[in-house]
Amino acid sequence: MNFSFQLSPFNFHLSTEKMVVKDKIKALREALEQHNYNYYVLSAPTISDREFDEMMKELQVLEDIFMVNYQIVIMVGYVLQ
Q1: Run of H or E residues at 4
Q2: Measured between alpha carbons, how far is 49 from 74 in angstroms, rounded to an integer?
Q3: What is the rounded distance in angstroms from the CA atom of residue 5 to the CA atom of residue 40?
Q4: How far is CA 40 from CA 48, 50, 59, in A?
Q5: 77 C-beta neighbours (distance < 10 Å), count
Q6: Dist CA 39 CA 46 (whole Å)
Q7: Distance from chain centroid for Cα 11
Q8: How large is the greatest C-alpha to C-alpha distance in the chain, in angstroms?
Q9: Which helix (H) or strand (E) holds 71?
Q10: What pLDDT is attached to residue 21?
Q11: Contact 57/68 with Cβ under 8 angstroms?
């Protein structure tokens, strides 16, 4: 038997989607850090508490999804990098 791995559109989609999620997580973390600085250090908030909470919730959801997908990938023995 001869086994080979070929890049399929499905694999490309997973890889592309993973990069988009990682970029979004990074952007949300940076934005939340800046908003925390503005609020606590400068005493000059630039967004409402509600907007901050919504951003935090979005970050938590994305991190949960990313970690579940990452754990599934590890279980089958193939890590996307």
Answers
A1: none
A2: 37
A3: 51
A4: 13, 16, 20
A5: 6
A6: 8
A7: 18
A8: 67
A9: helix 49-75
A10: 83
A11: no
Residue 52 to residues 8, 26, 40, 55, 59, Cα–Cα distance (Å): 39, 15, 13, 5, 11
Question: pLDDT digit string (tens) for 14-62?
Answer: 566 777 888 899 999 999 999 999 999 999 999 999 999 999 999 998 8
Distance, CA of 47 to CA of 54 (rounded, Å)? 11
Instruction: List, in order, residues 6 or more apart from 73 with CB less than 8 Å away.
Output: 79, 80
Q: Take residue 35 and report the two structure tokens written for it.
A: 């908003």
Label residue 25 exposed, middle or buried (CB < 10 Å: 0-12, 13-18, 19+).
middle
